[in-house]
Specification:
The chain has three domains: 8-22 and 34-208, ANL, N-terminal domain (Rossmann fold, 3-Layer(aba) Sandwich), CATH 3.40.50; 323-424, Luciferase, domain 3 (Roll), CATH 2.30.38; 429-534, ANL, C-terminal domain (GMP Synthetase, Chain A, domain 3), CATH 3.30.300.30. The protein is of the alpha/beta class. Helix 2 crosses helix 3, helix 7 packs across helix 8 and helix 9 (253-263) packs across helix 10. The chain contains 15 helices and 28 strands. The chain is globular. The strands form six sheets. Strands 13, 14, 15, 16, 17, 18, 19, 20, 21 and 22 form a ten-stranded mixed sheet that branches. Adenosine-5'-diphosphate (ADP) binds at residues 181-182, 184, 228, 298-302, 319, 321-324, 351, 407-409, 421, 424, 513, 515.
């Protein structure tokens, strides 16, 4: 066979060529602006020419500081295809982390949305390696001045660049893009995706066991393009020739529902917190979300109540599991053929079966590989062509084990391959030597009709070393008590697992990518900032 490289350039050429008429629409708040894949392909060529003019002639890092929109897709295609490396900056990070990441990656250029200038400007002078800032769209650029960087307007650069670019031949193993983990412990770590890993991950996304993306779909990536490549949806959509709908900065339930009703996407990916807001809004307003044939959801455990709530309005949520280090999608929870009712639900509430091409195992104390019997609990390890083998300029040998990535997630594997996560290693609650799954308790609590959100963390206990503390957000107007919630849990988990410490809060603190920030809850508890009720 021919030794033909698997590159993002080939994805771009194919999508912009064969599916040149497919559209990319970006929501403006009250409508959409549209371009075709053909136009996006030409604009990617212009962008590559413009970046070359700014001195990007090798594997320099070109950062993006952008929402999900058409121009971000243009950068996704142009930067890797010209041989440079796309570095997506998470615009929700604390300023110091942003500075750390941009300096660690040695970003040369930053492409920013005009609407994000107020976030970029305060840190710009500290981005040591950045020479150029390219501004997309409207925005007052005055705050960017005085930081010692050259400023450019995106459209002016594109207009001045040639409509064609001589895309170089690229080794499929070379770096295409990078993304830093959210750094919930210590400094963020850089994960570098290769052309080959992005290509294979995109193909995998198009398989039926994943999302089965095709040219008949319309794809809405709500999950940010600055976080794990929006789960790979943009590249997979271009590969499949599926039109894309981009939400830009309109990520609240109301505009998202309007966007879905207007553009009728068939696939839309987002984390559970977004979907629970959307569900509440859709139920209140009788919205029609039935264009969606599949809603991939993950990033944290997907509560069964959320899936059932969507089922009630005719929409199927499919749980997926992965991490920045796994490109990110590694397993997807489709039920097996013929499974009905509770059997199907058992599969759907799991983290799913690993995708073809990857291998997964559960490892216990002393690095012993445990049986896939659905009972032995250990750390999940994974390997395969879109799993990272190292971090950028950071050895961290503790994260790797004989060529496998240690995921930091803890759970079981069933004989038929379903992964069930019980916790992240750092969130595991060990009570009197027995493990309590915070994820399981949270899922049950969130199934209570009065509970909007619930997060469970382990806190020190004199007798049992550690016990669960439940932090609960009640629906407005609800007056459910800790005793009632204990009663509710008692019918669902072993009695000794039911928390006796309860706190009612207005919102669970979230990380920059919308996950429950348990570190903050533990700290608030330690500092005595939570009003805790004891109920035995
Ligand atoms: P960070 O590790 O910085 O939070 P990632 O987005 O890479 O950023 O997070 C990956 C982690 O998210 C996984 O290791 C896992 O703990 C969690 N996660 C992802 N999907 C799921 C899921 N479906 N169920 C439970 N946890 C999930």
């Amino acid at each position: 066979m021919q030794d033909f490289p698997l590159t993002i350039t080939t994805i771009m050429r194919y999508g912009a060529g064969v599916f040149g008429d497919a559209s990319v629409s970006t929501w403006t708040g009250d409508g959409t602006r549209r371009r075709t894949y053909g136009e996006v392909g030409e604009r990617a060529a212009r962008l590559a020419g413009a970046l070359r003019g700014l001195g990007v002639d090798g594997d320099q890092r070109v950062a993006t500081f952008m929402w999900n929109n058409t121009e971000h897709l243009e950068a996704y295609l142009a930067v890797p295809s010209m041989g440079a490396v796309l570095h997506t900056l998470n615009l929700r990070l604390f300023p110091d982390q942003l500075v750390y990441i941009a300096n660690h990656a040695e970003d040369r250029v930053v492409i920013t949305d005009g609407s994000l200038i107020p976030l970029l400007a305060p840190v710009l002078a500290r981005l040591e390696t950045v020479r150029h800032v390219v501004v997309v769209g409207e925005g007052d650029t005055a705050p960017l001045e005085g930081a010692g960087k050259e400023l450019h307007d995106y459209e002016e650069l594109l207009a001045a660049a040639p409509a064609a670019f001589e895309w170089p031949e690229i080794d499929e193993r070379s770096a295409a893009a990078m993304c830093y983990t959210s750094g919930t412990t210590g400094n963020p770590k850089g994960v570098v995706y290769s052309h080959r890993s992005a290509y294979l991950h995109s193909m995998s996304t198009c398989t039926g066991n994943a999302m089965g993306l095709s040219a008949s779909d319309v794809v809405l990536p709500v999950v940010p393009m600055f976080h794990a490549n929006a789960w790979g949806l943009p590249y997979a959509a271009v590969m499949a020739g599926a039109p894309l709908v981009m939400p830009d900065r309109f990520l609240q339930a109301e505009p998202l529902v309007r966007l879905i009703e207007a553009e009728r996407p068939t696939i839309a990916g987002a984390v559970p917190t977004i979907w629970s807001d959307v569900l509440r809004h859709a139920k209140e307003h009788g919205s029609d979300l039935t264009s969606l044939r599949l809603v991939p959801c993950g990033g944290s455990a997907v509560p069964e109540s959320l899936m059932r709530g969507f089922e009630d309005i005719g929409v199927r949520i499919v749980q997926a599991w992965g991490m920045t280090e796994t490109s990110p999608v590694a397993s997807v929870a489709h039920p097996p053929a013929g499974a009905a009712d509770e059997d199907a639900w058992r599969a759907r509430v799991s983290q799913g079966r690993v995708l073809a091409g990857l291998e997964m195992r559960i490892v216990g104390d002393g690095d012993v590989v445990l049986p896939n019997d659905g009972e032995a609990v250990g750390e999940v390890e994974i390997r395969g062509p879109w799993i990272t083998g190292a971090y950028h300029l950071d050895e961290d040998p503790a994260k790797f084990h004989d060529g496998w990535l240690r995921t930091g997630d803890v759970g079981t594997l069933s004989p038929d391959g379903y992964l069930v996560l019980t916790d992240r290693a750092k969130d595991v609650i060990k009570s009197g030597g027995e493990w309590i799954s915070s994820v399981e308790l949270e899922n049950h609590l969130m199934a209570h009709p009065d509970v909007v959100e619930a997060a469970v963390v382990g806190v020190p206990d004199d007798r049992w070393q550690e016990r669960p503390l439940a932090s609960v957000v009640l629906r407005e107007g609800a007056e459910t008590t800790a005793a009632e919630l204990r009663e509710f849990l008692a019918g669902r988990v072993a009695k000794w697992q039911v928390p006796e410490r309860w706190t009612f809060i207005t919102e669970v603190p979230k990380t920059s990518v919308g996950k429950f920030d348990k570190k903050v809850l533990r700290r608030r508890y330690a500092d005595g900032d939570l009003e805790v009720r004891h109920a035995d």
